[in-house]
Design a protein that fits this description.
retinol O-fatty-acyltransferase activity; single chain; 459 residues; binds coenzyme A; transmembrane; Oat_ACAT_DAG_ARE
């Protein structure tokens, strides 16, 4: 037994010696390969390096930390200002009710539009008269609620929602009229020439909606079809919309959760962050102290922008997707990657897709077809857009200023400037700066003017 152990010990010693010898011999043959070659430092643009994920994470961490500090500072300075019963107070407020009544009454204009289309289809009304009646219907739909809400001194927030409702309704009715008119004229042309356009829009829809019964003009002139369009998250009418296969309940629950959380967050941020800044800006504005006003505006621009970003996600992603899912509306392109826009035009093409598609299809392209140049057509679109921005702010606040109008109009020279002088990342930064400082300032100017005009609180 003892002998056996000794033999094993000798064996293991021999083994160790062999390993050491091997290591030694390996060290001797190690070659020192060349470690240098021609290459650029990662942070120089010539290196072509683009993976800044870690830096992005650092920015997020810094943002969370600095926002946390801001929240703490704010609560220490002002205390907890948030009133959680704001929605209940809003419902109880009698000045909110005229807006609701106005929304209910909007059905009148819908009925008018359908009746007009049916009469046009039957040939009871001539095309030119139809155009005039359609114009009058839409014009009244924009004017009547504005006058009504102005004189009823409706609550600004509810009034804003009601007028947004009417603006969307008017755009939808324009689209409804133009598409039906096109279908009507096309059918007449086909009847007279007995030609069928093989590449019609409905063919592409056919592929997307295998199980959906296809509707053809004039079978679409029903309340069901019109109200589906009015409820759908689009401003452009089509007789047959692409439909999704089924309603995903979990999707609706997730998006609805986002809406509840984000709208509560918005209410919190407005009350806790924006209102104190506005209150503190009374004196500089009254004394017209320019430097202090700039300081106040810059201070307002940050929460305003945060609110705008949350509002964007809440509306364009969560809300429009919920509506689309409930209605099985298939086209979910409500926004594109506007955050990467390197020029102002690209931003307007990508940020609010329902409005952009409407402008393109119902204003811009028809104008181009009439021989108007691109820049003139763009100018007209931006003028119309500027008018509606002004309409949606001035009437609810019951005061006419031109900040919103100017905010949209300056987009045209600004777009030319950015396109000419700033490219790539600089162009993208210019777009961000205009969003952070330009448009929100215009909105804040109104809120401030409103505050001064209506509350006139003593210093
Ligand atoms: C004015 C506006 C419509 C211009 O859009 P644009 O995309 O820059 O315009 P473009 O010149 O690039 O042309 C766009 C389309 O017109 C088509 N087009 C160009 N010239 C044409 C012509 N002579 N005839 C017919 N079509 C033409 C292009 O092919 C293109 O079609 P596509 O979209 O199917 O590819 C856009 O800037 C806009 O929507 N502005 C308003 C935005 C707004 O107010 N939003 C409010 C948000 S709150």
């Amino acid at each position: 037994m003892k002998n056996k152990t000794e033999v094993e010990e000798v064996r293991s010693r021999i083994k160790k010696d062999t390993i050491n010898d091997k290591k030694h011999s390996h060290e001797q043959i190690h070659t020192y390969e060349s470690v240098h070659k021609i290459r650029d430092s990662l942070l120089s643009s010539a290196s072509g390096y683009t993976n800044y994920r870690g830096v992005l994470n650092l920015c997020v961490v810094l943002l969370v930390m600095s926002s946390g500090r801001l929240v703490l500072e704010n609560i220490l300075k002002y205390g907890f200002l948030v009133r959680i019963d704001v929605p209940i107070q809003f419902i109880k407020d009698p000045t909110a009710w005229p807006s609701l009544l106005a929304i209910v009454l909007s059905n009148i204009f819908t009925f008018n539009a359908l009746k007009l289309e049916r009469n046009l289809e039957k040939g009871i009304i001539q095309e030119t008269t139809g155009k005039i009646l359609c114009f009058l219907n839409i014009f009244t739909a924009l004017l009547a609620p504005a006058i009504y809400l102005w004189y009823r001194e409706a609550n600004p927030v509810s009034s804003f929602f009601a007028l947004t409702w009417y603006t969307c309704l008017s755009m939808k009715l324009v689209s409804y009229f133009q598409v039906n008119r096109y279908q009507r004229l096309k059918r007449r042309l086909e009847n007279s020439k007995n030609e069928i356009d093989e590449k019609s829009n409905t063919d592409s829809i056919k592929k997307q909606t295998k199980n959906e019964p296809l509707i053809e003009y004039p079978d679409n002139l029903t309340y069901r079809n019109l109200y589906y369009f009015l409820s759908a998250p689009t401003l452009c009418y089509e007789i047959n919309f692409p439909r999704s296969e089924r309603i995903r309940k979990s999707f609706i629950i997730r998006r609805s959760g986002e809406i509840i959380f984000l709208s509560s967050l918005l209410l919190f941020l407005v009350q806790q962050w924006v209102v104190p800044i506005l209150q503190n800006s009374k004196i500089p504005f009254r004394e017209t102290n320019i430097l202090k006003i700039i300081e106040r505006l810059l201070k307002l621009a940050v929460p305003n922008h945060v609110i705008w970003l949350i509002g964007f996600y809440c509306f364009f992603h969560s809300y429009l997707n919920v509506i689309a899912e409930i209605l099985r509306f298939g086209d979910r392109e409500f926004y594109r990657d506007w955050w990467n826009s390197e020029d102002v035009n690209v931003f307007w093409q990508n940020w609010n897709i329902p409005v952009h598609k409407f402008c393109l299809r119902h204003i811009y392209k028809p104008l181009l077809n009439q021989g108007i140049t691109k820049s003139q057509a763009s100018l007209i679109v931006f003028f119309i857009s500027a008018f509606f921005h002004e309409y949606l702010v001035s009437i609810p606040l019951r005061m006419f200023r031109i900040w919103a109008f100017l905010g949209m109009i300056v987009q045209i020279p600004f777009a030319v400037f950015v396109k000419k002088f700033l490219h790539g990342n600089y162009g993208n930064m210019a777009v961000w700066v205009s969003l952070i400082i330009g448009q929100p300032i215009a909105v804040m100017m109104y809120i401030h003017d409103y505050y001064i005009d209506y509350f006139k609180v003593s210093d």
